[in-house]
Amino acid sequence: VSTQSTGEVMMDHRRGARVLLIIIFLLTVVLSFLSLQNSKIFPNNALNADSKPFLSNTLGSNMVLQRNQQAVLWGWTAQPNSVVSVYFQDQVFSLPSDSTGKWSIAIPAQKATFQPQTIQIKSDSGETAILENVLFGDVYICSGQSNMQMSVQGAFNATYEINRANSYPNIRLFTVGQQSTSLQPLDNLKTFVQGWSPASSASVGNGVWSYFSATCWFTAIQLYEELEVPLGMVSSNWGGTCVQAWTSSDVVSTCPKYSPAPGCNPSQPDGPNCPSNLYNAMISPFLPMRLTGVLWYQGEQNADEPTYYGCGFPLMIKNWRDKFNYPTLPFFFVQLAPWDCGSTNLNIGHIRISQLAALALPKVGFATAADLGDISSPNGSIHPRDKQTVGKRLANSILSIVYTEEKTWFPPTFTNFNSSVVAGGLQVDLTFSTITVHGKLTVTSPSCPAAKTACSGFEVLVSGKWIAPAQLKATGNNVVSLMVPSVTVQATGVRYAINCWPLMSVFDSSTSLPALPFDSTFTGYTHHRKHSGARFD
């Protein structure tokens, strides 16, 4: 039988409540500290006089370092010419920092491993840092504008996909912050919103426009399932930005028809669309990092300058390869998806073609999204939700080019046409490369879900006018025939899916990939490419 009075019981309750509040407060402090430590802070990571950290903020616990290459660690000492030592697997690697305090130390190439590694770094002036739970695998940078920025939360089946991320803790994620531009190349990031983190529902599902990039993530899942090696995925992107902003200042103006950049306000030279500002702030800090490749989803902001883009996009790829000191750095892009622009805009169709100019470079692959329109997307039709298909297609091109796996990733590609006057009108036969058709061509009859003037399928140029054919059919494994009634003169051109919303009607029966948009009259870029076998490398 209790002998406590009512007052004593109440005092005990208050005392218990105070203790509980103290415990909760302490737990909050500890968890906050651990979170900051994981994403932004290193123990005793002193800043030098120029506010540069002892260890670059692109590095951190939980990261993946590139396998099969000498992984590089770097940072800055407060005192120039300080000796920095890296302690790794019972080995010590030491070098002095330079006259500015910068140091860089490479550790021997390692095979892929799921065994967590610890790396300690110390200077003879007392600075220390530690990297814990580090894996060795393959590292990719994912960059571009809003369709790369759009997170898993904005994709189809978001709840399922976010929860599924808990099954992939050996995929590690890092997201660079926006609102960080620079007129000069930076050595260190101004901001990042997600430090190196194992994939989980928390690290993948944080807001439609926060982290983590859906295109980057779904590509990573496909690669991981095939390769079974740790993956490090860096998301560094900014919606509504042009290719000029992502190209360094020493080369950005070298293309014909160069313009400073669409969206750059001369009165605000530090804006995100001004030349080189995003390269300087969001790519330059990663240059010492060893990579496997780059994923790129961008082009909408350059939609009104397709001729420039046919030079400017390959220029940017070569530029990054030069800056990363990796002449054949594998590079993979997404051909733009449909969107409802409200009226006819052939420039958007042509920029999809201009993107393909990058294929003239070695070790470049892509995934088309030209058939993945999403008129009902809550984020606008320009942001389709089916990033899963994009990721699968990108992964197939990566697996083929980087890992030499047999993947049929290249869509059916138009090569030439012939026209002839027959009974009933003009017949135009379109031939597609037999190397890019893996089954046989099939023809569908899509409807236009967008503004009617924003849609287009096949069109034939006759006597200076573009005419839509009345019929089309597959007449062979790699031939599609168009019929234009009542026309008795030869065609001088043909185009397919050249508008904001391409009506994709030709597919490969084996791969389900759509035939690529084309325009036989568009001369905005020159594309020379040797095709061999099922792979393009």
Give a concise summary.
Helices cover 21% and strands 27% of the residues. The protein has nine helices and 25 strands.
- End-to-end gap: 84 Å
- How many whole angstroms does the radius of gyration measure? 27 Å
Give me the secondary-structure category: alpha/beta
Mean pLDDT: 89
What is the percent of helical residues? 10-25%
Structural commentary:
The chain is α/β, with parallel strands linked by helices. It is 21% helix and 27% strand. It is built from nine helices and 25 strands. The protein has helices at residues 6-39, 146-149, 158-164, 201-204, 214-227, 277-283, 306-323, 346-355, 387-401, and strands at residues 64-66, 71-76, 83-88, 91-96, 102-107, 113-123, 128-144, 171-176, 192-198, 231-237, 293-297, 331-335, 364-368, 414-422, 425-432, 441-443, 455-456, 458-462, 465-467, 471-476, 479-485, 493-496, 501-502, 506-508, 518-519. Strands 1, 3, 4, 6, 7, 8, 9, 10, 11, 12 and 13 form an eleven-stranded mixed beta sheet that branches. The chain has a four-stranded antiparallel beta sheet with strand order 14-15-21-20, with no helix packed on it. The radius of gyration is 27 Å and the shape is elongated. The termini are far apart.
